[in-house]
Amino acid sequence: MQRGATEAAELIFVFLLIAVVGFAALARKIRLPYPIVLVLAGLAVGFVPGTPRIALDPDVIFYVVLPPLVYAAAWQTSWREFSYNLVSVISLAIGLVGLTVAGVALGAPFILPGFDWRTGFVLGAVVSTTDAIAATTIVRRMGLPRRVADVLEGESLVNDATGLLALELGVSLILFGSRPDPTHVLLRFGQLLAGGLAVGMLVAWVVQWVEQRIDDAPIEVAISLLVPYIAYLLAEGVRASGVLAVVAAGLFLSRKSSQFFSPAVRIQAYSVWNALTFVLNGLVFLVIGLQLRSVLAGVRGAGAVLAAGVAFSALVIALRLALVFPGARLSYFIRSRILHQRESVPPARQLVVVGWAGLRGVIALAAAMSLPHTLPDGRPFPQRDLIVFLTYCVILATLVFQGLTLAPLIRALGLAEPSGPAFEEQEARRIALQAALSHLEKTRPPDRPDLAPIYDDLALHYRRRLAGLTGKPTGDEGQSVDPEHHERFRALSRELARTERNAALALRDQGRIDDDVLRQIEHELDLTEARLQDERKE
Fold first, then answer.
1. Rounded to an integer, what distance in angstroms lies between the CA atom of residue 86 and that of residue 81?
2. Cα 188 to Cα 197: distance, rounded to the nearest angstrom
3. What is the DSSP string of 14-55?
4. 210-234 per-position pLDDT tens digit
5. Does domain 56-258+300-412 have CATH number 1.20.1530.20?
6. What is the pLDDT of residues 447-459, one digit of tens each?
7. What are the residue ranges of CATH 1.20.1530.20 in the chain?
8. Helix 97-111 × helix 302-333 angle, to 10°
């Protein structure tokens, strides 16, 4: 029996992987975000006769899938933009979550029969937080203005603590009938926030200390895979926010990775993580679609509950659209008057996009399914099945409907950023090339005329690259390099690549470029150094 169950699980897993690859390829061909295509595919496949019923286990989502995906999202986040927009991020991650919970708690009894303010509070907590997985995989592909995308991604990474606290309070209201004590709420929120950040930074510091003392790609890649799980489990163990711990570790280690990852390790680590996040994301969104049959099995009266699902989804979307405007004005006041940032109030069309981009995902569904089935006295948890169904409706409404209409809305509002030269990246490349040329001239040995062709050839190569950026001709003629000096040529090339990297790192640390630009330049330099290293082995 056990062998048969194992074989069935293996077949289901292979089926899911094949479906992820196939539908992701289809999404690329029809130019739609693959998460949306996978959700729709899951919806369709779930009702095919003979398709196995795949139950979503909340523990698998929270403890297996969520940590690495949040870690990858945090790793790709630019610290400069995140810290600069922190006030706006907090206004959404705390203020908007709290107001959404309150709005649902007050509005649910009027549109959902059988709900009171307490069950509405639980429902609001479940659907209040935007999904980090959905935000990263969809928002980045929509051509949003950079400022809007940065705020949305930051919100999805931070709002877990607020949503978790609200859900914890809502469940305690129903289970024990306890009313929230403001002092307890503040202390609990502080524990979630401070504990999560402290655990994440502690794990990151230990990992950095270990990484600086080893240079072995398989071991370092394995450590990078362990980091999110260690941070998450330790934080959950002290009743802090596991997601915030993972975010803190990811932001810190991403910023420090240039100091402890060698080029070869960085190339391998990015390859492994790109494949892992694609597979996990694909499975998550496909499983969301496959859950509809199971969700419908728990409710009765399909027509009535479907109407309730549509009405409730409209309420959640309307609440976010209405609340982003006062939140933006408050953020602007703090940023301009207190922090003295040169910021203007975001235009209404940008705020409409922020409101429309409140995508929910598998985390909301897992939170709903994690609700207890019974009360302490043995009675069923009130409206649990309906809460799960309504959460699913909100996910479909935001992830599919809003996700599909987001790009047309951006274009209609004139917010699509035209593709053009990345001036920040061009300036970083120019400075890095000039630093390499300066280093080359400083290290040219005056008493070794036999090495002159090597230095001249490298100088010509860098001047040509610089001319490609500035549009100014070099006026130089190429010179051949004596084969016996080829090793010296490679060594100098590696040294100049490191000089370029250091110049780019200095620009990042000065805040003149963001982490995305650094990663792009660093990746190209890693490939150059890896090629030179391979040539040396040959």
1. 8
2. 14
3. HHHHHHHHHHHHHHHHHT--HHHHHHHHHHHHHTSTTPPP--
4. 998 888 889 999 999 999 999 999 9
5. yes
6. 677 667 777 777 7
7. 56-258+300-412
8. 150
